[in-house]
Amino acid sequence: MARFQLESTQLINRVSRENNRGFLVWCYTEIMVKKRQDKLHFTISITADEQMKILNEKHRGIKHSTDVLSFEIKEKLSDGEWVGEIVVSKDYAKKQAKQLGHSFEEETAFLVAHGVMHLMGIHHD
């Protein structure tokens, strides 16, 4: 499992080269307005479907893989807040990118943005 840490501003800078800049800027704005701070820290882990299936079953009781999981932590730091961890299935992202007709990088960026929104309390049905 690959792991790395990004601040929210680094996320926008890293993925803004893709065509999804508008969506990510919207996500960033929503997050910053909601949290009223400029430094959110989170970890992004990229893993295989097999590991994602284990995590999904352990934490959600669902016995299959999924594209992205978010684990809320919420810890105050001197320069912001540690909000949690986002786990993305590289296999799922590759399949979805192919189905949707865009790059693996673009799909991964969308999944990370999706995970960040969940960490901020924005959920879907």
Keywords:
four-stranded mixed beta sheet; globular; 50% helix; 5 helices
Descriptive report:
It is a single chain. Helices cover 50% and strands 27% of the residues. The chain has 125 residues and is of the alpha+beta class. It has helices at 8-15, 21-35, 49-60, 90-100, 104-119, and strands spanning 2-7, 40-47, 68-77, 80-89. The model is unreliable at 1-19 (pLDDT under 50). The protein contains five helices and four strands. The chain has a four-stranded mixed sheet, with helices on both faces. It has a single domain (2-119), classed as Collagenase (Catalytic Domain) (3-Layer(aba) Sandwich).
Write the layout of secondary structure elements.
Elements: E1 2-7, H1 8-15, H2 21-35, E2 40-47, H3 49-60, E3 68-77, E4 80-89, H4 90-100, H5 104-119
Parallel strand pairs: 2-4
Antiparallel strand pairs: 1-2, 3-4
Estimated helix fraction: 40-55%
Shape: globular
How many β strands by DSSP?
4
CATH architecture: 3-Layer(aba) Sandwich
Classify the fold: give the CATH topology: Collagenase (Catalytic Domain)
Q: First CA to last CA: what distance?
A: 28 Å
Q: So how many helices?
A: 5
Described by strand count, sense and barrel closure, the largest sheet is: 4 strands, mixed
Question: Which structural category do the helix and sheet elements fall into?
Answer: alpha+beta
Major β-sheet strand ordering: 1-2-4-3
- Low-confidence segments, given as residue ranges, are 1-19
Mean of the pLDDT scores? 76
Structural domain count: 1
CATH superfamily: Metalloproteases ("zincins"), catalytic domain
Quaternary structure annotation:
single chain
Q: Spell out the helices and strands N to C.
A: EHHEHEEHH
